[in-house]
Amino acid sequence: MDSALLNAVLEHVDQGILMVDANGYVAVCNQRAMDLLGLPRELMRSNPSFEAVKRWQMEQGEFGTVTEELLRAIKYEGINVEILDYERQRPDGTVLEARTNRLPNGGMVRTFTDITVRKAAENAIRVSEERLRLALQASRMAAWELDLETLWVDRSENSMALLGIGSGPASDFIDRVHPDDRQMVQAFWKTVISEGSGAVEVRYRSPNGSHTWFAVRAERKDRNRLIGLTFDIADRKAAEEAIWRTANHDPLTGLANRALFQARLDEALKSAAAAGTGVGLLLLDLDDFKDVNDTLGHAVGDLLLRETAFRLRSFIGPSDTVARLGGDEFAVILADIPAGGAAMAMATEIAEGLRAPFQHEGRALSTTVSIGLATFPEHHRDPEELMKDADIALYRAKEQGRSQAVVYTSAARKTMEHRVTLAHDVREGLAARQFVPHYQPKVSLVTGRIVGFEALARWQHPTKGLLTPDYFGSMFAEPAISMALGEQMIRQVAADVRSWLDQGLECGRVAVNLSSAEISDPRLADRIIRILDDARVPAAHFEVEVTETAFLGRRTATASLILNMLHQAGISIALDDFGTGFASLLHLKQFPVDHNKIDQSFVRNLISDDSDAAIVAAIVSLGHAMGMHTTAEGVESSQQAARLREAGCDSAQGYFYAKPLQGEAVPTTIRSWSSAG
Predict the structure, then answer these.
(1) Closest among 491, 471, 396, 490 to 426, alpha carbons compared
(2) How far, in Å, are 4, 38, 48, 114 from residue 10 at the CA level?
(3) Count of Cβ atoms closer than 10 Å to residue 417 Cβ
(4) Are residues 546 and 402 part of one domain?
């Protein structure tokens, strides 16, 4: 080739070219080489030795730290020069690629290429890949690519640690998916192929053998290729589970709460209707649970609730549900039962199981439970109506003495509906002030004079006329109604007594009956005393009557407090219907009872039944011995009155003397009675 043409080629190529002859001298060095290596033109025109060039470069600090490898790269040993390719970075930041080739005559040719841009790009790619790797690792995520023809999946490096599998057939992943979720994966592939993208969440057997949750997202890039990400969502699922449990479970017992219970009941009824099976619904109340809280504290009450929950769980199957609806109210759903009889058997078993005591700090605690039972299809299909059925049955269980299971009946629903209607009517009657006291005189068996009255509640109904407690007495068990009625009665009695006193009449003590609901209210004594003060009625003209049940159960402490406050205020305390309940002589000793009333059931057959006569004589004798005034109720004949007088009874009341009177009739009755002597 012509030397001029050769020089032209050498000066226009993008590579730096340096040729050394067999004697070790630079034979060729193009301008590109001098530019890339920073070699001075003066040095290169003198045809320096290769060693001289390298020495100059070293003096200029071209190579930075000199290493053995670098020395081998720059050393020239004639025919023995090594063929060595290397990369190095010049002080100005330029990155050069050097390639060395031996010539047949013993010389060598070394080319230099500026790869700064390429290295920067490679480095950027490497940094990006490292960032992606770290991101995938930090986010517990693996990238993959699926060949739809071969079903081969190329997976990112971290997939082995994350998924327990590397690149391989798609079946490797599917085999580790929970069996119940594999159909979802197949449907996911089809969605991505047909629609271009998709996502799915599945349970997956992790490398340590436990099941965790993964989400998979993919896109179709072309006809035969899907790309996607698989990432760990176990923490998110755990958080969702925790939120769901908080929203659907009782925090104290861990049982289903009312919301989850309602959903499970709906589901059970739908399933049973489709399968032709039955559902049993049990509503449970712990009997006298308030006693535990009041006497032993709420911490012990909570322990009892947790123990109850634990025992209830032991009775049910995997498809059944136990829930705490609130307070001491629990519910059990028995799913897919064959018949109502099976539910009743379970209810009886539960009642027996909960009756067994449990130990707390060396002390045996026990409770009983009342259970209301309703079943599908025997009763209602609608969840709300079935709940009403079970609630009605529960009310009947409590009404019949508690500690038992009662099955719903349509007759019980009618009774309850009547009760609800009655409660509504009574509330309206209270608002319209239709309830008034009627007064039955109490007469001294010694003087025959009126010594007091008992105020009896009557309902002046706008359409039914005058109604006695035989009609509305069941409402005394409703705390709100009972207390409202009681206060209305006390206020009217106080107003009537004040009116009689203003007329100069001696009415004695006027007694008002207190219901169990009223005697459970710690504020009752203060309220009565305030009403009397407002009406300017002396305490000596007022009396309260309580039945023996006021001394029993959780009301005992509150009743004691109320009665003592009233007694200290000068208000007389009468024990009504003595001998018919569960009071003991100890109660008569413990409570400030001033007046003992003999129940009419003993008076009715006083003349013909020696046992009743003996009981009456014993009660009178006991009352006198304890300094109590004794009154006999239900006296209907002169013979009864005479026998009571002989027994030493102080006073009597009943139809023999007078029926209950309207308040307006009392003044006339007192005056005429007084004049009659």
Answers:
(1) 471
(2) 10, 17, 19, 16
(3) 12
(4) no
Beta 152-155 vs 168-169: how paired, if at all? antiparallel
pLDDT at residue 76 in the model: 47
Same domain, 69 and 137: no
Q: Which residue ranges in the chain fall short of pLDDT 70?
A: 1-3, 5-6, 9, 64-84, 125, 127-139, 339-340, 549-555, 579-587, 674-677
Are residues 451 and 542 both part of a single domain? yes
CATH of the domain at 82: 3.30.450.20
147 with 105, same domain: the answer is no
Instruction: Give the pLDDT of residue 131.
Output: 65
* Phi then psi dihedrals of residue 41, to 5 deg: -60, -40
Give every CB contact of residue 124 below 8 A, 6+ residues apart in sequence: none
Answer yes or no: is 296 within a domain: yes
Specify the long-range contacts of residues 454-460, CB closer than 8 Å, at least 24 apart.
Answer: 454/510, 454/511, 454/513, 454/545, 454/653, 455/489, 455/493, 455/510, 455/511, 455/512, 455/513, 456/513, 456/660, 457/485, 457/489, 457/513, 458/660, 459/426, 459/429, 459/434, 459/435, 460/434, 460/435, 460/436
What is the rounded CA–CA span in Å between residue 306 and residue 304? 5
Q: What is the DSSP letter of 76?
A: -
Q: Is the pTM of this model over 0.70?
A: no
Residues 149 and 15 in one domain: no
- Which range marks the domain in which residue 98 is found? 3-114
Of the three residues 194, 211, 237, the one that is the final residue of a domain is 237
Torsional class of 402: left (φ above 0), alpha (ψ -120 to 50), beta (otherwise): left
Are 115 and 96 in contact, with CB atoms under 8 Å apart? yes
Contacts of 232 (CB under 8 A, 6+ apart): 139, 140, 141, 162, 212, 213, 214
Residue type for position 318 = P
The full length of the chain comes to 677
Q: Is 414 part of any domain?
A: no
Q: How far apart are CA 50 and CA 100, in angstroms?
A: 13
Domain boundary among 50, 85, 114: 114
Residues 6+ apart with CB under 8 A from 113: 14, 15, 16, 96, 97, 99
Neighbours of 97 (CB within 10 A): 17
DSSP state of 582: S
Is 391 in the same domain as 442? Answer: no
Show the beta-strand stretches assigned E in 73-155: 86-89, 95-102, 108-114, 141-147, 152-155
- Within 8 A by CB and 6+ apart from 296, the residues are 365
User: Are residues 108 and 20 in contact, defined by beta-carbon separation less than 8 angstroms?
Assistant: yes
Q: Where do we find the tokens 């007389």?
A: 572
CA distance 486 to 491: 9
**Chain center to CA of 506:** 61
CA distance linking residue 178 with residue 369, whole number of Å: 43
Torsion 551-553-554-557 (CA) sign: positive
Per residue in 431-455, pLDDT tens? 999 999 999 999 999 999 999 999 9
